[in-house]
Amino acid sequence: MLLSSEAAVSPGCRCPRVLHLPGASGAAARAQGGERRIPEALARCVLLWLGERLIRMASGWFYLSCLVLGSLGSMCILFTVYWMQFWCGGFAWDGSTHTFNWHPVLTVAGMVVFYGAGSLVYRLPQSWLGPKLPWKLLHAALHLMAFSLTVMGLVAVFKFHNHNHIANLYSLHSWLGITAVFLFACQWFLGFAIFLLPWASLWLRSLLKPIHVFFGASILSLSIASVISGINEKLFFVLKNATEPYSSLPSQAVFANSTGMLVVAFGLLVLYILLASSWKRPEPGMLTDRQPLLHDGE
């Protein structure tokens, strides 16, 4: 009996065009109920074809969402820079208010934009097939960049406070922010030690993966809450005079509130992409056995 595989697999699949199915006859056929066993090569090609179709279907909407996400992230940073430059006097590193202005720019860029981008690495359809190590390295590098920018932002605000004899870590904004940074540091070092270095066993990685994912989304949520409270706190400080109070909604308040809404929109879109099941990296064996690092269950 001959079975053609041309109708079932993609042109790039290296399956034979015609496969011979071993037939069973006599007592063997009766014992097997007349069933035919599909060759393993054809099964693999079908899985590959299905995987490629799945990737093509998911990638269209995914890349459209990434385009929107990239635009929102760029606007978050640019709006914050413009706010600090146009209304707050620009940037310096002398302990003055201009030193503080680095804080919102660096923390928005680090804890929101770069952190969100790093979190979505495993949602890229290209990461579904092939070795996982390059994507692990990109994931770790983006988050390390986010952490470095955030630390620089913290140094700026502590330098400003200490230079002007202002107490540190007294507001809800500061509590939310320092909690997010602390959890982020623990998350990065744990991820580096467990998921990037080769020593950890399969059961340990499987045990910690849901925790790693949960805290990843939680840290982003805390970061967004910290940014929003920080914008509000800054406006209360700078718009407290009688001629231009915050309650009158001057142009600076409108612009800063709009920046906060952009940050919220960016964060919500990141969380949506992270939670969308159709964009999650398939479990091991669902697509193809060409994934040498997917058998570890990550």
TrEMBL record:
Subcellular location per the Swiss-Prot or TrEMBL entry: Late endosome membrane; Lysosome membrane
Record field: transmembrane: 61-84, 104-125, 137-158, 178-199, 211-231, 251-275
Cytochrome b561 domain location: 68-275
Membrane-topology annotation of the record: Multi-pass membrane protein
GO BP annotations listed: intracellular iron ion homeostasis
Cofactor field: heme b
Keyword Cell inner membrane: no
Matching Pfam families: Cytochrom_B561
Principal location class: membrane
Organism domain of life: Eukaryota
This protein's GO CC annotations: late endosome membrane; lysosomal membrane; nucleolus
E.C. designation(s): 7.2.1.3
Coiled-coil annotated residue ranges, if any: none
Alphabetic keyword roster: Electron transport, Endosome, Glycoprotein, Heme, Iron, Lysosome, Membrane, Metal-binding, Oxidoreductase, Translocase, Transmembrane, Transmembrane helix, Transport
GO MF annotation terms: metal ion binding; transmembrane ascorbate ferrireductase activity
InterPro entries linked: CYB561/CYBRD1-like, Cyt_b561/ferric_Rdtase_TM
Catalytic activity: Fe(3+)(out) + L-ascorbate(in) = monodehydro-L-ascorbate radical(in) + Fe(2+)(out) + H(+)
Record function comment: Transmembrane reductase that uses ascorbate as an electron donor in the cytoplasm and transfers electrons across membranes to reduce iron cations Fe(3+) into Fe(2+) in the lumen of the late endosome and lysosome. Reduced iron can then be extruded from the late endosome and lysosome to the cytoplasm by divalent metal-specific transporters. It is therefore most probably involved in endosomal and lysosomal cellular iron homeostasis.
Subunit structure: Homodimer.
Protein name as catalogued: Lysosomal membrane ascorbate-dependent ferrireductase CYB561A3
Source organism of the structure: Microcebus murinus
Gene coding for it: CYB561A3
